[in-house]
Write a structure and sequence with these properties.
The protein is α/β, with parallel strands linked by helices. It has helices at about 1-10, 45-55, 80-85, 105-110, 125-130, 130-140, 170-180, 190-195, 225-230, 245-255, 265-275, 285-295; strands at about 20-25, 30-35, 60-65, 90, 115-120, 145-150, 155, 185-190, 210-215, 235-240, 260, 280-285, 300-305, 315-320, 335-340, 345-350.
Length: about 350
């Protein structure tokens, strides 16, 4: 199962909206087949591993990081393929949270006389590997991560007109991997006007689909000569308000920008993204958008990068703006992990506490 998880990780960032899955076929104690899923519409991990195993798959045990699918999607059901191959036993790390599967794959195998075992000790690792997919299947909305780079005293910017990077190039390269594993990146018009960013995935690694760049711009103030507009290849979406200028909307759409008119409620806008099978969203914005996202309850986790610096000053910009909260009602972060970034920086990853 460790090898199956290792294989699955090779597909991470390349499978969305599908999960990353790894498979290992074992016959008489010898590995005879292995596979992992890469692209939506391409053979799943089980099929790749069975093809490599050939006739040796008959009577074998196959280790899977996720329950085999039992429904017709872009590809035929993997559960049926395992039955046809004559596999004797299936060991899976977790049940598929997709309501179209959710145990039906296991039922299909058992009905065919195949022994099924759930390796519960690997469930956490398998779930974490596909946390955005699992979250989307269980909640119906994308997993939203808020990323920020700041000083030790929590500042993401100095006073007006003072610009520049806070964290090192090493930390910024680390943050690029967050973009790679995300389906969409969201920012506010304030960040666009201040920084003229590109918001691209610069890892150079394969993706199943382009990173969708999303701007919250109620009045359509985004400049037509901004780098975002100039570089769009159908990968720029702007959420505008109902009072947005119709002519400006036409000008943007003529340049290949998608403009969606909606109210300003963030939950509704993220629901729109979910309908496009966006499983994971990365927010990279300023203090105002960050505060709005927390207040709207759409943030599921945080990834905060810290540089060994202190800016101080009442004019310096905090990571989260707004009115703030009382000490007895903070946004609580749990399941915290600290990632060292040599030589002196670090990142804090954690999940927003939900009242259950």
């Amino acid at each position: 199962m460790d090898l199956a998880l290792h294989l699955a990780r090779q597909g991470a960032g390349r499978t969305s909206p599908n999960p990353a899955v790894g498979a290992v076929v074992l016959r008489d104690g010898v590995i005879v087949g292995r596979g992992f899923h890469t692209w939506a519409g391409v053979d799943h991990a089980e099929i790749v591993a069975l093809r490599e195993a050939g006739e040796l798959a008959r009577g074998s045990t196959i280790y899977l990081t996720l329950e085999p699918c039992s429904h017709h999607g872009r590809t035929p059901p993997c559960a049926d393929a395992l039955v046809r191959a004559g596999v004797a036993k299936v060991v899976a790390a977790m049940e598929d949270p997709n309501p179209q599967v959710a145990g039906r794959g296991f039922d299909r195998l058992r009905a065919a006389g195949i022994d099924v075992e759930l390796a519960q000790e690997y469930e956490d690792a398998a779930s974490r590997l596909n946390e955005a997919f699992v979250h989307a299947m269980r909640t119906g909305r994308p997993l939203v991560t808020l990323k920020a780079a700041m000083t030790l005293d929590g500042k993401i910017g100095a006073g007006s007109g003072d610009t520049g990077w806070i964290t090192s190039e090493t930390a910024r390269e680390h943050a690029q991997h967050l973009r790679h594993f995300s389906d969409a990146i969201v920012t506010g018009i304030g960040t666009v006007l201040a920084d003229d960013p590109l918001l691209t995935d610069r890892t150079g690694r394969e993706r199943s689909r382009p990173l969708l760049r999303v701007v919250l711009d109620s009045k359509l103030r985004i400049p037509l000569d901004s780098r975002l507009v100039q570089s769009t290849r159908g990968d720029l979406l702007i959420f505008a308000g109902t009072a947005a200028d119709a002519q400006r909307k036409d000008e943007l759409e003529q340049r290949g920008v998608r403009v969606v008119i909606s109210d300003d409620r963030l939950p509704a806008r993220f629901e729109c993204l979910a309908k496009e099978l966006i499983r994971s969203v990365l927010i990279e914005a300023g203090a105002a958008v960050n505060a709005s996202a927390f207040d709207a309850g759409v943030v599921d986790k945080i990834f905060f990068y810290y540089a060994p610096k202190i800016l101080g000053g009442m004019e310096s910009m905090p990571a989260v703006g707004g009115e703030g909260r009382a000490r007895d009602n903070p946004i609580r972060i749990e399941r915290v992990t600290v990632h060292p970034i040599a030589p002196d920086e670090f990142a804090v990853e954690g999940y927003v506490h939900r009242n259950r």
